[in-house]
């Protein structure tokens, strides 16, 4: 096991109707005037934004709003949000939505007290030193941004999708009401579930030895997703399954299942180029990329893939041919993703094999390497896109 | 799943030699003068106290010391510690030790800013409203106090063992260096492992339905303990197994595996009377009590016990007789505890069956009931002691 620090100070406020307590928690964490960041009209039509505003009113918290945040969030609203905050004396950023809204809110929180361009933190030009406090009211179980120190934003100029991470933008509190996710269409629900599983697999496939506790915790989240996701696809109103998925989504990404081990994250990076180019859902892109990545890298550690196959997917160990066990685990993952309505190849995603050179170029590894489990060069990444392009059940 | 709040703001500083960073973290969390609380001479002889003091010196942190804290910690040193703090202007309590030292440190932290008797918080007479900041350098994986909001203290007058819990005494940071646990005797190591497993089982046996995510997380910790504990009993210097157990011990008790579900905790309460009366190790008492409690209550939810047997202990499900599966799981638990050197009945623990009326009386349930999974009356508690008294493999 590697040495590590683990710090997850977010207060999670979990359960039915708890978004009505938002104002109380903003006050608890020192906010006096908030910027409410949200996405489209559904949050208004469902009455959620109204509930949050009433809760702020009741607690004497002023607010401004920034709406219209879209999936695969870009930089433009971040600049708008920073301007509003500076003009209006905002001291607290409240995201009401999913990963895109939360990541935008985090970018604004970093940008307000910074003299330069907030993009400096995403391009790697500068390290954040302060941020406004951020909190969230979560509406989809997926990104894990409600409990993570991460934010991913796309720069409109060049459509570069880049991330940053700092404890400064760990949410002060996150309201997790599973009821808010019951109105989500099946496709978005499945995209979220895929993202959650991918967050675990990016940590699971590691070269670090002797990590039984985090292996087992990773497997716990994966087995939960395998049980609960088909239930919400079949019955979107199943509160209990929604609740299990919502907590699993947080556990998957606040890093409690990932400490003490090298992690990979190439599947995320390779996917980001798909969602940046085609504006597809991140989860859908991961459904296409992650099994392809697994097929490309599994020979690097057959026994680790066999362990996942046996422990997570219930495959019988083939002692005469462990690789067959490993491959069967990957096959079951892709088959599971297909069963919940996810695309499994470029055609189903709406991507084009002829764009692969463009995707590889944008990925930007150049003549270098990337990844924590298997180091990949540009040619390897091209091959993973090719496997993903033509994948079949 | 029940509604819940989850808040675990402790920064965990995990790895080899990281106790040399203690002073840096005391400074980070605002301490200027610390009370170092520790146990016996071994912490001095091993050089640990010296290392911590040097680290405080290097960071300009002053300190006083309070030593001699014993297992099953009592109130006397708490009063001494409070007095030292008030006299010397202490603003930070640093526990260097295991659960007894940490629980004492937490009690001092509560007592210093309180005008009345600190015991008020343990007797239920008052609720804590403030506390000095607490941090820990952990030397045994067991109590989970390094990440929990809890403290258990015994009042010398009457030997009453009582606990309190408040987020105010969650440690600001906890240094977890698995190397520090390599010198522990096998018996203490096994007591710690038993305590960790008991913390999970107290949460696992619940009447709350639809808690797959926390069920699976509980099982993850238990399976880790079943794999790693025999390795450290066989080879105390096995750093990797020690590291897995140390992180498992924190995960078992900061409540990430227990949120959203009713919990029981009767085994802990029933055991506390044993360790209060005989001054035996808490973990050893749990090894005697918990399987007995399981035998007494398992008919309340045979399928939950069968699930534990199958998922955790690898028992084959007996579909014709699920109770046989459940009972086999309990048998394997007791057998496992025996295999790591734990006592399994009163004789091996040094307790006496003729004291059972005294134990039941001290437990103090009177004509009432207690427990979250199965409500127990005084007669039930007596029967559990009787099962424990005469248990055999």
Mind explaining what this structure looks like?
2 copies of one chain form a homodimer. The first copy, chain A, has 16 helices and 8 strands. Chain A is of the alpha/beta class. The first copy, chain A, has a 6-stranded parallel sheet with strand order 1-8-5-4-2-3, with helices on both faces. A two-stranded antiparallel ribbon of chain A has the order 6-7. Chain A starts with a strand and ends with a helix. The relative contact order of chain A is 0.11. The mean pLDDT of chain A is about 95. The interface of A and B includes residues 8, 9, 11, 16 and 227 of A. Strand 1 (about 5-15) of chain A pairs antiparallel with strand 1 of chain B.
Top-tier CATH class of the largest domain in chain A: Mainly Alpha
Shape of chain A: globular
CATH topology assignment of the largest domain in chain A? Dehydroquinate synthase-like, alpha domain
Please give the largest β-sheet of chain A: 6 strands, parallel
What layout of secondary structure does this protein have?
The structure is a homodimer of 393-residue chains.
Chain A: E1 4-14, H1 22-28, E2 33-38, H2 42-45, H3 48-58, E3 62-66, H4 76-88, E4 92-97, H5 99-111, H6 119-123, E5 134-138, E6 150-155, E7 160-165, E8 173-176, H7 186-204, H8 212-234, H9 239-251, H10 266-278, H11 282-297, H12 302-311, H13 322-339, H14 346-349, H15 356-363, H16 378-389
Parallel strand pairs in A: 1-8, 2-3, 2-4, 4-5, 5-8
Antiparallel strand pairs in A: 6-7
Helix pairs in contact in A: 1-3, 4-5, 7-8, 7-11, 8-9, 10-11, 10-15, 11-13, 11-16, 12-13, 15-16
């Amino acid at each position: 096991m590697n040495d590590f620090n683990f710090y997850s100070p977010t207060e999670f406020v979990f359960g039915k109707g708890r978004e009505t307590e938002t104002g109380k928690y903003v006050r608890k964490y020192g906010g006096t005037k908030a910027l409410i960041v949200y996405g489209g009209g559904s949050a208004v039509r469902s009455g959620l934004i109204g509930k949050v505003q009433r809760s702020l009113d009741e607690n004497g918290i002023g607010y401004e709003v920034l709406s219209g945040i879209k999936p695969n969030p870009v930089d433009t609203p971040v600049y708008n949000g920073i301007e509003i905050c500076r003009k209006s004396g905002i001291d607290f950023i409240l995201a009401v939505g999913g990963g895109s809204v939360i990541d935008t809110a985090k970018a604004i929180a970093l940008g307000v007290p910074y003299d330069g361009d907030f993009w400096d933190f995403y391009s790697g030009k500068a390290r954040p030193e302060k941020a406004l406090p951020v909190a969230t009211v979560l509406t989809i179980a997926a990104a894990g941004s409600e409990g993570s120190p991460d934010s991913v934003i796309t720069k409109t100029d060049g459509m570069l999708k880049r991330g940053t991470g700092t404890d400064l933008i760990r949410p002060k509190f996150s309201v997790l009401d599973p009821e808010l996710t019951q109105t989500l269409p099946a496709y978005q629900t499945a995209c979220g579930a895929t993202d959650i599983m991918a967050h675990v697999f990016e940590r699971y496939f590691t070269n670090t030895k002797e990590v039984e506790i985090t292996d087992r915790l990773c497997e716990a989240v994966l087995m939960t997703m395998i049980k609960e996701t088909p239930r919400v696809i079949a019955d979107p109103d199943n509160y209990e399954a929604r609740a299990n998925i919502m907590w699993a989504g947080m556990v998957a990404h606040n890093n409690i299942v990932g400490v003490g081990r090298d992690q990979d994250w190439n599947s995320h990076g390779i996917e980001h180029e798909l969602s940046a180019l085609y504006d597809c859902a991140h989860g859908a892109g991961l459904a296409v990329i992650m099994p392809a990545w697994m097929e490309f890298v599994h020979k690097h550690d057959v026994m680790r893939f066999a362990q996942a196959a046996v422990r997570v997917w219930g495959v019988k160990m083939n002692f005469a041919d462990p690789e067959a066990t490993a491959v069967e685990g990957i096959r079951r993952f892709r088959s599971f993703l297909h069963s919940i309505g996810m695309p499994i190849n470029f055609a189903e995603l709406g991507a084009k094999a002829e764009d692969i050179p463009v995707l590889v170029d944008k990925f930007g590894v150049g003549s270098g390497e990337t990844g924590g489990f298997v180091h990949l060069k540009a040619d390897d990444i091209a091959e993973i896109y090719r496997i993903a392009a033509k994948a079949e059940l």
